[in-house]
Amino acid sequence: MSLRLTMIVTAATAVLLVASNHYRPEAHGTVDTGIVNPPPVPVPGAILRSEDVRFIDQPGRYGLGKDLADSRYAIVGGHLVRIDPDTMQVKSVLRRRAYASD
Predict the structure, then answer these.
(1) Would you list the DSSP string of 53-99?
(2) What domain of life (predicted)?
(3) Is the overall model pTM greater than 0.90, yes or no?
């Protein structure tokens, strides 16, 4: 293969690679899950919206004792957490993916 043909093939390959990398769906934002406002994955310190929080009225169903002072147990996005009910700040994540019904 001549040097000129090799250069043309190399340049064409580079152009195709660059073009294909910019066309990948993941390069254009998030994947549409069909959920308008998915609940957040809770992390300690995060401030939550009240509509994302389901407070637990029967902590024993989750193997927990009474709520601790200045906090309440809740389910957020399927996770068992401890929240300051006045500020809606996550104090701790107790279990990831807690599915017991309240």
Answers:
(1) EEE-S-GGGGT--SPPTT-EEEEETTEEEEEETTTTEEEEEEESS--
(2) Bacteria
(3) no
